[in-house]
Amino acid sequence: MKRFLAGVALLACAACSGGSSGGAPTTPSTPALPPTSETFTGTVPVGGSDSHPFVVKLSNGLVTANLTAASPAVAMGLGIGTIANGVCSVLSGGAVIATAGTTAQLTGTNFQNGTYCVQVFDVGNQSAAVTYSVTVTHY
User: Fold this and answer.
1) Within 10 Å of residue 97's Cβ, how many Cβ atoms?
2) What pTM, to 2 d.p., does this model score?
3) Which domains does the chain have, with CATH numbers?
4) Which of 5, 39, 46, 95 is most solvent-facing, going by the fewest CB within 10 Å?
5) Is the pLDDT of residue 26 over 50?
6) Buried b / exposed e along 100-129 (16+ C-beta atoms within 10 A)
Protein backbone atom coordinates (compact mmCIF):
# COMPACT_ATOMS: atom_id res chain seq x y z
CA MET A 1 0.00 0.00 0.00
CA LYS A 2 2.92 2.36 0.77
CA ARG A 3 4.31 1.82 -2.75
CA PHE A 4 0.93 2.59 -4.29
CA LEU A 5 0.60 5.87 -2.35
CA ALA A 6 4.19 6.83 -3.18
CA GLY A 7 3.45 6.17 -6.87
CA VAL A 8 0.28 8.28 -6.77
CA ALA A 9 2.15 11.10 -5.02
CA LEU A 10 4.94 10.95 -7.62
CA LEU A 11 2.44 11.12 -10.50
CA ALA A 12 0.66 14.05 -8.87
CA CYS A 13 3.94 15.94 -8.49
CA ALA A 14 4.92 15.24 -12.09
CA ALA A 15 1.56 16.49 -13.34
CA CYS A 16 1.82 19.68 -11.30
CA SER A 17 5.39 20.47 -12.36
CA GLY A 18 4.86 20.17 -16.09
CA GLY A 19 5.43 23.87 -16.60
CA SER A 20 3.12 26.57 -17.85
CA SER A 21 1.36 26.47 -21.16
CA GLY A 22 1.43 30.24 -21.58
CA GLY A 23 3.95 29.90 -24.41
CA ALA A 24 6.03 32.89 -23.29
CA PRO A 25 9.70 32.06 -22.68
CA THR A 26 11.30 33.33 -19.51
CA THR A 27 14.04 35.92 -19.76
CA PRO A 28 16.95 36.59 -17.43
CA SER A 29 16.30 39.20 -14.77
CA THR A 30 19.56 41.01 -15.51
CA PRO A 31 20.41 42.72 -18.81
CA ALA A 32 23.00 41.12 -21.09
CA LEU A 33 26.56 42.38 -20.71
CA PRO A 34 27.19 44.91 -23.51
CA PRO A 35 30.30 44.48 -25.64
CA THR A 36 33.36 46.63 -24.97
CA SER A 37 35.24 48.21 -27.88
CA GLU A 38 38.79 49.38 -27.36
CA THR A 39 40.87 51.23 -29.94
CA PHE A 40 44.64 50.93 -29.82
CA THR A 41 47.22 52.81 -31.89
CA GLY A 42 50.91 52.35 -32.37
CA THR A 43 53.81 51.91 -34.75
CA VAL A 44 55.23 48.68 -36.15
CA PRO A 45 58.90 48.87 -37.15
CA VAL A 46 60.17 46.95 -40.16
CA GLY A 47 60.37 43.29 -39.12
CA GLY A 48 58.71 44.04 -35.79
CA SER A 49 55.42 43.97 -33.94
CA ASP A 50 53.36 45.94 -31.45
CA SER A 51 50.78 44.59 -29.00
CA HIS A 52 48.18 45.79 -26.50
CA PRO A 53 46.43 43.93 -23.65
CA PHE A 54 42.66 43.74 -23.14
CA VAL A 55 40.48 41.92 -20.61
CA VAL A 56 37.61 39.55 -21.46
CA LYS A 57 35.07 39.63 -18.63
CA LEU A 58 32.57 37.04 -19.85
CA SER A 59 33.49 33.38 -20.36
CA ASN A 60 32.69 31.88 -23.77
CA GLY A 61 32.65 35.39 -25.16
CA LEU A 62 33.18 36.65 -28.69
CA VAL A 63 36.29 38.68 -29.61
CA THR A 64 36.77 40.59 -32.86
CA ALA A 65 39.75 42.59 -34.12
CA ASN A 66 39.64 45.17 -36.88
CA LEU A 67 42.70 46.85 -38.37
CA THR A 68 41.10 50.23 -39.11
CA ALA A 69 44.14 52.15 -40.37
CA ALA A 70 47.68 51.54 -41.57
CA SER A 71 49.97 54.24 -42.92
CA PRO A 72 51.60 53.76 -45.28
CA ALA A 73 48.90 51.43 -46.60
CA VAL A 74 50.26 47.89 -46.48
CA ALA A 75 48.96 44.46 -45.50
CA MET A 76 49.78 43.71 -41.86
CA GLY A 77 49.62 40.70 -39.60
CA LEU A 78 46.80 40.89 -37.06
CA GLY A 79 46.59 38.40 -34.20
CA ILE A 80 44.96 37.65 -30.85
CA GLY A 81 47.04 36.01 -28.15
CA THR A 82 47.85 35.57 -24.51
CA ILE A 83 50.42 37.41 -22.44
CA ALA A 84 53.18 35.62 -20.56
CA ASN A 85 56.08 37.47 -18.95
CA GLY A 86 55.08 40.65 -20.79
CA VAL A 87 55.19 38.97 -24.22
CA CYS A 88 52.13 38.59 -26.46
CA SER A 89 52.06 35.08 -27.95
CA VAL A 90 49.54 34.74 -30.77
CA LEU A 91 47.16 31.80 -30.40
CA SER A 92 47.39 28.92 -32.85
CA GLY A 93 45.15 29.88 -35.78
CA GLY A 94 44.70 33.31 -34.20
CA ALA A 95 46.26 35.51 -36.87
CA VAL A 96 45.45 36.78 -40.35
CA ILE A 97 47.07 39.04 -42.92
CA ALA A 98 44.83 42.07 -43.31
CA THR A 99 44.59 45.44 -44.96
CA ALA A 100 42.89 48.26 -43.09
CA GLY A 101 39.13 48.21 -43.46
CA THR A 102 35.79 48.83 -41.81
CA THR A 103 34.83 45.26 -40.85
CA ALA A 104 36.51 42.88 -38.44
CA GLN A 105 39.20 40.80 -40.12
CA LEU A 106 39.60 38.44 -37.15
CA THR A 107 36.82 36.84 -35.08
CA GLY A 108 37.03 34.25 -32.33
CA THR A 109 34.57 32.63 -29.94
CA ASN A 110 34.69 30.75 -26.64
CA PHE A 111 37.21 33.08 -25.02
CA GLN A 112 37.34 32.50 -21.27
CA ASN A 113 37.52 35.48 -18.96
CA GLY A 114 41.07 36.74 -18.59
CA THR A 115 43.73 38.95 -20.12
CA TYR A 116 44.50 38.66 -23.83
CA CYS A 117 46.44 40.77 -26.32
CA VAL A 118 46.04 42.04 -29.85
CA GLN A 119 49.19 42.12 -31.95
CA VAL A 120 49.92 43.96 -35.19
CA PHE A 121 53.05 42.78 -36.98
CA ASP A 122 55.13 43.04 -40.15
CA VAL A 123 54.54 40.09 -42.48
CA GLY A 124 57.67 40.88 -44.50
CA ASN A 125 56.43 43.51 -46.91
CA GLN A 126 57.10 46.73 -44.97
CA SER A 127 59.78 49.10 -46.26
CA ALA A 128 59.25 51.64 -43.46
CA ALA A 129 57.60 51.86 -40.04
CA VAL A 130 53.79 51.67 -40.18
CA THR A 131 51.47 53.57 -37.86
CA TYR A 132 48.18 51.78 -37.29
CA SER A 133 44.89 51.74 -35.45
CA VAL A 134 43.10 48.56 -34.39
CA THR A 135 39.75 48.14 -32.64
CA VAL A 136 39.07 45.11 -30.45
CA THR A 137 35.51 44.32 -29.42
CA HIS A 138 34.92 41.81 -26.63
CA TYR A 139 32.62 40.89 -23.75
Assistant:
1) 14
2) 0.76
3) 34-138 (2.60.120.380)
4) 5
5) no
6) beeebbbebeebeeeebbbbbbbeeebeee
